[in-house]
Amino acid sequence: MKHLFERPGNRNSVAATIAPARPDSLTIRSCMKAIPLVALILFYAMQAQATTLLKKSLNDLLAESDGIVVGTVSEMKSRYDKKKEIQTLVTLTELQVVHGHYNAPSLVLQLQGGEIEGDVLEIHGSPKFESKDRVVVFIKDNGRELVPFVGWTQGVFRVSRDAKGNDRVKDHEGNNVLAVAGGDLVKEQINLPEAVIVDGSGQPTLKGAGAGTTDDGSRSELVSQSKKSSKGDAMTLREFVSTIGSKLKDQGLKGKSIASVSAETPVDAGLTHDGDAAPPQSAR
What we know:
mainly beta; six-stranded antiparallel β-sheet; about 30% strand; disordered N terminus
């Protein structure tokens, strides 16, 4: 089902695409400079909908990813694709390939959504990046999927340096990644994701997730933990990468060629990739 918001004189402005047949539903909101009143009503009605994603364990992230890369965001730019929809290119440099095959000095990731001169296409629940972000990403189908990470934000981790100079790993929302227990990550749950994360039975896995609406139809507030975990500091990047490497070896998982999108010409499905990975750099 496709809802189309049109700007005067532009038949290609896309507001929302919902794919019921896919396990992960999504809501895309598009704000145009000028749109009809009916479109405005539809636009605000759509905001009440939330993206729902299936929970991904660490084992899922490892098994489903084409590759895993540590990198620094060096550039972000938005462009129109061949269908006149907005997409954003995120360029990573200072690469460390943890899993998979890639040997170029930079990697360009393509995410649907972005902003061009006030024309905004927002993918609800999609990862957010800023220049100079140091991240660990579990990449899947770059250039083919709306969001090229396993589990969307679940496949994106942030690296920050503490007062002692150690690189620490947090999840996309900024929660400390504390440890690995079995096939999953132990994390703080202070900051909740924008999307609703559900288990195999469709039940929210995080406290406050999927709060839905109140009796009057307004969006209810998400409830999160107010105190930080007492279990200790976040894992260091070195510990995180080492643990990932051990689990990949134990499970016999083989990486694939990691795709990089061309920053010059808009593409819908064409991918480019490089060969074997250079030896990974050391992580602090």
